[in-house]
Design goal:
Helix content: 55-70%
CATH architecture of the largest domain: Orthogonal Bundle
Number of strands: 0
Order of helices and strands: HHHHHHHHHHHHHH
Number of helices: 14
Number of domains: 2
CATH class of the largest domain: Mainly Alpha
Largest sheet: none
Strand content: under 5%
Structural class: mainly alpha
CATH topology of the largest domain: Ammonium transporter fold
CATH superfamily of the largest domain: Ammonium transporter AmtB like domains
């Protein structure tokens, strides 16, 4: 349903905003969202304002444009705003134009998400694609960041792999996010941890070194694991999604800007396409058996 009237506000704005944070992880749980917000506040306080501003801009834009209230309450129009707000705050220097830029990007992410939900169908689910597109535009405006060195520590790398979903590079941030995921969905949380671990292990075998310890090979695998485990799907399906995301990551590393969550998004699209192509064959096989 679509109306331009400023009507039908969310019944609980705080819950809607927290759901926006948890929807970054493809989960709907205010307590999980609160843990994610705390992770940002405790490990990267300079990014909190951008995250909240982006989420609020996405939610207000969705309300102003009359998008479905249940979807707004679920955080489906806020989570891309959370991510783009964090990214803009992280890579662009502070200036008076930064808050309006975050508001504009958060609002645009909401509109892009709505169009994706209308036109993408089941094959091209939005996921974090609006954030990726807006994020690439942001990174083209940013100065290259200095390389960060961290000590080799497998446990910290695993936690950073989860934390990097929110662009956090402190293990404590990853730990708080993991705790939040366990509040929302213990099965999916376990798979997210497995995804981060597998991503780091594969990259370590490939000799990536510092990128592994920074968690840069964990977050796309963790998101792919979340996408295909939150409904209790079969283990091999989740593993396949993780593998595809890991195979795609070196390709996106060839871009002049960071790939962000693009490997996760494209991996999910390929999984959906594979399901779409195999289902007619399965149905025809069943028909032949019964004919």
């Amino acid at each position: 349903m679509y109306t331009k009237n400023f009507v039908n506000p969310c019944p609980d704005w705080a819950t809607a905003l927290l759901n926006g944070f948890s929807q970054v992880l493809l989960l709907r749980n205010p307590l999980c969202g609160l843990c994610c917000l705390l992770a940002i506040l405790m490990t990267a306080p300079s990014l909190v304002g951008g995250a909240l501003l982006g989420a609020l801009a996405g939610l207000l834009t969705a309300q102003r444009r009359g998008y479905e209230r249940a979807d707004r309450q679920a955080g489906l129009y806020s989570y891309n705003g959370v991510l783009i707000g964090i990214l803009i705050s992280a890579v662009l220097p502070w200036s008076a134009i930064l808050p309006p830029l975050i508001i504009a990007a958060g609002g645009l992410s909401s509109m892009l998400t709505h169009q994706w939900r209308k036109r993408g169908g089941k094959l091209l689910t939005a996921y974090t694609a609006p954030f990726v597109l807006l994020g690439w535009a942001t990174l083209m405006l940013a100065e290259p960041g200095a390389a960060t060195y961290v000590e080799a520590d497998p446990l910290y790398a695993l936690l950073r792999g989860v934390g990097q979903i929110f662009l956090l590079d402190k293990p404590m941030g990853g730990l708080l996010i993991v705790i939040g995921m366990y509040f929302a969905n213990p099965y999916a949380a376990t798979w997210a941890v497995i995804g981060s671990m597998l991503g780091g292990a594969v990259a370590l075998l490939a000799g990536e070194g510092q990128a592994v310890w920074m968690g840069l090979y964990g977050f796309n695998a963790a998101l792919a694991a979340l996408a295909f485990s939150r409904q209790g799907e079969r283990a091999w399906v989740t593993l396949l999604a993780i593998v595809i995301a890991l195979l795609l990551q070196p390709l996106f590393n060839l871009l002049p800007v960071a790939g962000l969550t693009a490997p996760f998004v494209v991996a999910c699209w390929l999984m959906h396409l594979g399901t779409h192509l195999t289902q007619p064959n399965q149905r025809s096989g069943v028909h032949r058996l019964h004919s």
